[in-house]
Each structure stands twice: as C-alpha cells, then as structure tokens.
Design goal:
The protein contains two helices and seven strands, in the order E-E-E-H-H-E-E-E-E. The chain is an alpha+beta fold. It has a four-stranded antiparallel sheet, with no helix packed on it. Strand 2 and strand 3 form a beta hairpin. The protein starts with a strand and ends with a strand.
C-alpha cells in the first residue's frame, strides 16, 4: 500500500522546525489505515536542493479506511505564536494560582474560569509545529525516546479542527483577506481545511527525540 503525503515543511518557512544537520525539508507520510487506532506515519528529513523529481499531483490510494485519511491539498501561511503547557502538566500550586487569576479574566469574556487557561492561553488548536500537546481526552503520559530515554518533544500536531473552544476565537489565525478556497473544493470547511479527521475529532501528535531526531518517533492521540 502506497503511503500518502500529509505535510511538507521547509525550515525557511517554519522557524520552530529544528531540522537535523544537512537537511532543511521535512516530509510526513502515512498509511491511510489504523495502526491500531490512527494512521502510522513516516518522517523523511531531506535537503530541498536534492529534490528534483517533483510530482504535480500525488497519486491517490486504491483504498483507505476513512475519507478523513486523505488530506486536501493546502498551502501554509505559518504564524508563530506563544503557548504554554496544559494545566495537567503543571503543579497543583500553579494550577490553583492560574484558577484564581482566571476568575476576573474569564468573567470579562463570559467564560468558565476552570477552563479559561486551557482554552485561551495554553494550547494553540489546529495543525502546528512544536508546542505542547493538549490533554483534554486523556491524562499526560511519559514520552521517553525508545532509543536513549530522552524526553521526547512534539514535532508536529495533526488536528481534526483548526478552531479552539473559546467563543472569542483567541487562537484564530491572521487570515489573508484575498485568500479563497480552491474552486475545486465545493465542500470547503474553514474549520477543517485539510479535511483530515483523527478518530472522533482528536489530534495526532508526532514526537521526536531532541537529542537525536533520527531516532524513531512516537505517535499519540489526544
């Protein structure tokens, strides 16, 4: 079964993409079937200068488990943001300080202070490079490198939805007013521009070893 292209990122466009020495291009592919609960991914770090035989249109697979495993082609306009760990990765003392601080902030936006930090400040929703995983569907779990034991860091988040849970849409990207969906996409959804669906609407995090990116990566659904 041929693997499908999922993302192609150039280091020149994505400041947080820490490419291994001698490479400046990351290509992410996956198998469009669950292994066992989400597509299995493969990472290829390359030098863009060596990529000369370029396909205009990637081949579609003869079969796939779900339509949501065939990404719609998209052009990226990277936007750098600052985010913070999910509240579940913070100490109990810091969680309480954040809860108290969030009360007046949440009141101004008519939001629940219990969820204000996670919705508005901690994790940027959508597809992203680097950053922190959201733990709204499972508890935090250790992510040691299977080769050397180093704590792994998120390389790429593949998300079902681009928008967050706050009504103020604090994480909405800066949009190019002239940008419009391709005329070929009669079902374009700005909240899901890639049309990818992970599980019942979750995220698939790909994490790599910061000490040696060539070590096997791990995958996690949240």
């Amino acid at each position: 079964m041929a693997m499908l292209p999922v993302a192609q990122l150039y280091a020149r466009d994505v400041p947080d993409l820490r490419a291994p020495e001698g490479t400046d291009l990351l290509q992410v592919l996956w198998c469009p079937f669950d292994h066992p609960i989400m597509p299995r991914t493969a990472l290829f770090w390359r030098s863009a200068a060596t990529v000369t035989d370029i396909l205009g249109t990637p081949p579609e697979p003869p079969a796939m488990q779900f339509d949501g495993y065939l990404p719609e082609p998209c052009l990226l306009h990277p936007e750098q943001v600052t985010e913070y760990p999910d509240h579940l990765e913070l100490s109990t003392e810091l969680q309480e300080q954040l809860r108290q601080w969030s009360v007046p902030q949440a009141a101004e936006e008519d939001m629940d202070p219990q969820t204000y930090y996670d919705c508005v400040l901690s994790n940027a929703p959508g597809w992203k490079v680097g950053g922190w995983p959201a733990w709204d569907s499972t508890d935090p779990s250790p992510r040691p490198c299977p080769e050397c034991g180093t704590r792994m860091e998120v390389l790429l988040t593949i998300a079902t939805f681009e928008e967050g849970d706050d009504e103020g849409r604090s994480w909405s990207p800066y949009e190019n007013p002239a940008a419009e969906p391709s005329p070929d996409l009669d079902h374009f959804d700005p909240g899901r521009p890639t049309a990818v669906q992970i599980g019942s609407g979750y995220r698939q995090h790909l994490s790599i070893c910061p000490a040696a990116p060539e070590h096997p990566h791990i995958e996690l659904m949240t």
